[in-house]
Design goal:
184 residues, mainly beta, 2 domains, 10-stranded mixed sheet, 10 strands
Length: 184
């Protein structure tokens, strides 16, 4: 009987302590107190990235649209094992160049679309290595301005998780020859 009374007393103390600690507990957010965090709401609506490098590859009039097809790759970090932090792949279109060594994206704003017209882009993806996430670009634009051998790029692209990718890059673009393997 003494043991049962001790257990009852212990239970009453735990119950009272719980009541004192969690009074006002609310899961709907209307009242102050303990709340379970919403993982989607806790994400920032913006992904801000200062890219540290840029690579551009020119494929000529690849889609027979009259516009030059480029792959623009912006990255944050080092292109070494374990050094890459984020990566943006953009399939974009600008003026057509007969000679690959003259090809460069033109100054201006490029808009997301399904067409292959000059000053547009499509089929783009963003990888955030720190969060282990691969995301698709669903809308937006990027602006490129050239200053001699240097460029300034600003991205404002909506990702498929609803966040806005706001990125910047200032520096040189490494222009690569297209791969010998056909893309078709």
């Amino acid at each position: 009987m003494k043991r049962c009374a001790c257990l009852s007393m212990l239970f009453a103390v735990i119950l009272a302590a719980s009541f004192v600690l969690f009074t006002g507990c609310s899961l709907d957010g209307d009242e102050p107190g303990f709340q379970i965090p919403d993982p989607v709401a806790s994400q920032s609506d913006e992904v801000a990235v200062e890219f540290t490098g840029a690579i551009l590859t020119y494929f000529g009039d690849y889609y027979y649209s009259g516009a030059g097809n480029f792959i623009l790759e912006l990255y944050e970090g080092e292109l070494t094992s374990g050094g890459l932090q984020s990566y943006l792949y953009v399939d974009c279109f600008s003026e057509y160049f007969e000679e690959h060594d003259e090809a460069m994206l033109g100054d201006g704003t490029y808009h997301f679309t399904k067409s292959n017209d000059a000053y547009t882009f499509r089929e783009s993806a963003f990888t955030d290595v720190r969060r282990y996430s691969d995301l698709v670009v669903t809308s937006g634009n990027f602006t490129l301005v050239r200053y001699g051998d240097f460029v300034s790029i600003e991205t404002k692209m909506r990702l498929d998780d609803g966040r806005m990718l706001c990125g910047t890059y200032e520096g040189r673009i490494d222009v690569l020859e297209p791969q010998l393997v056909a893309r078709r």
